[in-house]
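I'd like us to work through together how a protein chain folds, taking it slowly. We need material for that, and I hope you will provide a protein of your own picking. Go ahead whenever you are ready, and we will take it from there:
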Amino acid sequence: MTRNLIAILRGITPSEAADAAACLTDAGITKIEVPLNSPDPFDSIRAMAATHGQDALIGAGTVLSTDDVGRVAQAGGRLIVSPNCDQRVIVATKTAGMESWPGVMTPTECFAALKAGADGLKLFPGNLLGPDGLRAIRAVLPAGVPVYAVGGAGPDNFAQWFAASADGFGIGSALYKPGMSTADIAARARDIVAAYDEARG
């Protein structure tokens, strides 16, 4: 079963990356991003892509430049997530054959992202708009556009976000914090997947 969850592994190191990816995929989380403000992020992406690239969509978060898009592609990544809507980054991502998930908050940013070719929208920070804000924006979006809530979305309120038409979520510190053991990552991943499945019905 594929779940619309992106694991955000901010702060992970290359030596931890492959084992973390194993824990996540075993739990049922098959989309993983390494934010580029993590230590040696391209090495972590390379390690995960080499070991789990067939089972999971591996890529980068906090991608702010077209140069970084190219480096992620070279590392074997296939997913580009940004905190902002930069049309140059979106176009470079799609040109490289990768999935593009830019950060948006306003209808203007949503439509700019879609016009540039984004595969989906990352509502960020989700806690500023909340489910009601998503519901309002959804009224003007084209039908079928995937929207993931990131920041302020978690096991306690998955159901509220789903009711407001969220398609999925990016999960950061609730899932991973630097220095966490693989056993802890696995336990948190299982709990989040269980909460997601219950909220999804």
About this structure: The CA atoms of residues 147 and 166 lie 6 Å apart. The chain is about 45% helix and 15% strand. Residues 5-200 form a domain with the TIM Barrel fold (CATH 3.20.20.70).
